[in-house]
UniProtKB/TrEMBL annotation:
Record has Cytoplasm as a keyword: no
Keywords: Coiled coil
Gene3D superfamilies: P-loop containing nucleotide triphosphate hydrolases
Protein name: Polyphosphate:AMP phosphotransferase
Entry keyword Ribonucleoprotein: no
A GO MF term: polyphosphate:AMP phosphotransferase activity
Length: 496
């Protein structure tokens, strides 16, 4: 844990005023420099009840230019937030690059509020802390400066402040029953807090402890720490060689077994029109019942459709939605990220689209673009797409832990079949909008994409969120296969 900052002696007002003048200038300069960068600052405040976190935030806000700051005030989760994974509301609140986001209530709020006394409680707490560590590492790996502050107050000083408020009718309202209980169990809460801070104090997301007995010293130490952290991070960040990613000369497999699995797929499996019509109705009915069961059980469903250009994703999605009430699903077409999306972590735009409990989201392309097109085309650095495999697995794990059912499809066609479909699109007026120069460029890198897909299959095929490989040379068979796999996985998840 980072060492304590400041001391318990009173800071004279004259010295305080002089230090504030310097700090305000430094803070404004910080914001000017931050605006020029492509990273953000996320500020987390926690501490002992009565340590003055609210006053510290208000003071800091008075010293900063409010146009470059976002205050994210989170209270008890709303119904909408409870119906999504725990981290959903925190992802939504992240600031864009070049700005400061101050979380008033964060991913630590609930864990710090309870004392963990039993072995079971400690095990649950450690699982939650693992999730927090991963989230903060994900942010820091992306360049975000994560600043975490713990305002310390001794039990004696906390008690003195409570008694001072309770002694006067005009201030007694400030003391809640929860605060009085927190004072009674101060030592137990402190033990849990030490465990939490120790387990989550990591490179890129350090805890700074600030003594809060004297408000003046607390304020200048808090602002000074923020300036110091920014300067250190800015120096490290700018000293790195920010070379733009370039298109790799050759895509080398990380896991050759994934590509072997892809190449072993029987692409020419067929289904006659008559057989398709008979099977389609049966499986549409089964899928409809499965989706309604999931809705009644308050289980959301996330469909992921990936595949080569012209593999038939759109047609498969249309047949799939034929079994679902239009009020219960949303199709999310994924294109190039917007400027706003580029100012966030690449997963941000997908977290925003996660459905509420009982509803369905269908992603036409997805977060796997990071390890496919961005890798092959050189839109991101190798260290970014390499770590994305773990980030994606963790993202899907969070969905599943919440109760979501994640169903993933890769639609595969042969190179000859793709060429035939490309030509048909160029020759058919109402299909010409489906073909462009980018499709032809992607086709020229067929082997590179096969390698990238193979790694994706090998490194993100998990038991709760497996990949279903769909032979798609025959469109009828592909659509039937999607219906069948979707129905079976949803039913199995509900039965389990």
């Amino acid at each position: 844990m980072a060492s304590s900052t400041g001391d318990t002696e009173k800071l004279p007002k004259k010295i305080y005023d002089a230090q504030v003048a310097t700090l305000r200038e430094e803070l404004v300069q910080l914001q000017v420099e931050l605006k020029k960068t492509d990273f953000k600052i996320v500020l987390i405040l926690a501490g002992v009840d009565g340590a003055g976190r609210g006053d510290a935030i208000n003071t800091l806000m008075g010293w900063l230019d409010p146009r470059g700051v976002e205050t994210i005030a989170l209270q008890q989760p709303t119904d909408e937030e409870r119906e999504r994974p725990l981290m959903w509301r925190f992802w939504r609140g992240l600031p864009t690059s070049g700005r400061i986001g101050i979380f008033v209530g964060s991913w630590y709020t609930e864990t710090l509020r309870e004392e963990a006394r039993s072995k079971k409680a400690l095990a649950e707490l450690d699982h939650e802390l693992r999730r927090i560590r991963h989230f903060e590492r994900l942010l820091s790996d992306n360049g975000t400066l994560v600043v975490k502050v713990w305002f310390h107050l001794s039990k004696a000083e906390q008690g003195r402040r409570l008694r001072a408020h309770l002694a006067h009718a005009d201030t007694a309202w400030r003391v809640t029953d929860e605060q009085q209980r927190a004072h009674r169990i101060y030592n137990r809460l402190a033990t849990t807090a030490e465990h939490i801070l120790g387990e989550t104090d990591r490179p890129g997301a350090h805890w700074d402890r600030i003594e809060a007995a004297d408000p003046r010293a607390r304020n200048v130490n808090f602002a000074g720490m923020l300036v110091r952290r920014f300067k250190e991070h800015h120096r490290r960040y700018t000293n790195k060689k920010h070379v733009s990613p370039t298109k790799p000369k050759r895509v080398v497999a990380l896991r050759p077994d994934g590509r072997k699995r892809l190449l072993s797929l029987e692409l020419d499996r067929k289904l006659s029109s008559k057989a398709y019509e008979a099977k389609r109705e049966k499986w549409l009915g089964r899928l409809n019942r499965a989706v309604r069961r999931a809705r009644d059980a308050k289980r959301s469903i996330v469909f992921v459709f990936e595949g080569q250009d012209a593999a038939g994703k759109g047609g498969a999605i249309r047949r799939l939605t034929g079994a679902i009430d239009a009020r219960d699903y949303r199709v999310v077409p994924v294109a190039k990220p917007t400027d706003e999306e580029k100012a966030h972590h690449y997963l941000w735009r997908f977290w925003r689209q996660i459905p509420r409990d009982g509803f369905v989201a269908i992603f036409d392309r997805s977060w796997y673009g990071r390890v496919l097109v961005e890798r092959v085309e050189g839109f991101c650095h190798p260290h970014e797409w390499r770590r994305a495999f773990e980030e994606i697995n963790d993202f899907e794990e969070q969905l599943i832990d919440h109760g979501s059912i994640v169903v993933k499809f890769w639609l595969q066609v042969s190179k000859d079949e793709q060429l035939e479909r490309f030509r048909a699109r160029e020759e058919t007026p109402y299909k010409q909008h489906k073909i462009n120069d980018e499709d032809w460029r992607n086709r020229a890198q067929w082997s590179a994409y096969e390698t990238a897909v193979g790694d994706m299959l090998a490194l993100t095929d998990t038991a709760p969120a497996p990949w279903h490989l769909v032979p798609a040379n025959n469109k009828r068979f592909a659509r039937f296969d999607v219906l069948r796999h979707a129905c079976k996985q949803i039913t199995a998840a509900l039965d389990a």
